[in-house]
Write a structure and sequence with these properties.
Layout lengths: L1 H25 L4 E6 L2 E4 L6 E21 L2 E20 L2 E7 L2 E12 L16
Parallel strand pairs: 2-6
Antiparallel strand pairs: 1-3, 3-4, 3-5, 5-6
């Protein structure tokens, strides 16, 4: 059992590295990122959503940047050309952004969808022939 856990952990580390390398190859901008998921499905819309949020970013020049979730700093990097962050978060509708000082460099909206459809109200009364 212990050996299986070690093997799975190594496989996970190598897959993250290869994912980061392939994402860096696809990056054509001076600064880009991959965020997943950006949509989370909750049982009820008002509950919000809990999920593991993952961010991988790349820059062509060293930057000092911070990652913000709902206007709260989550992680900062000093003079880095890339970074990774992953954390279990509970979010409602909100924004994830990458900032250099107060300037927003990248941002994306995090959405929460509901499994339960919005309650529809009847537009007209019940049908009757009388």
């Amino acid at each position: 059992m212990w050996l299986l856990r070690c093997w799975l952990a190594l496989l996970f580390v190598f897959s993250l590295g290869s994912l980061a390398d392939s994402a860096a190859d696809q990056c054509k901008e001076p600064l880009c990122w991959q965020v997943s998921p950006i949509v989370c499905v909750a049982d009820k819309l008002e509950q919000g959503c809990e999920a593991e949020l993952r961010v991988i970013w790349f820059s062509d020049t060293p930057r000092t940047v911070c990652l913000y979730l709902a206007e709260q700093a989550q992680r900062c990097w000093q003079e880095a050309t890339s970074g990774q962050w992953r954390q279990q978060v509970d979010w409602r509708q909100g924004w994830l952004s990458m900032r250099q000082q107060q300037q927003v460099l990248l941002s994306t909206e995090l959405q929460v969808l509901s499994r339960q459809p919005a309650k529809r109200r009847r537009i007209s009364g019940a049908w009757s022939i009388f």
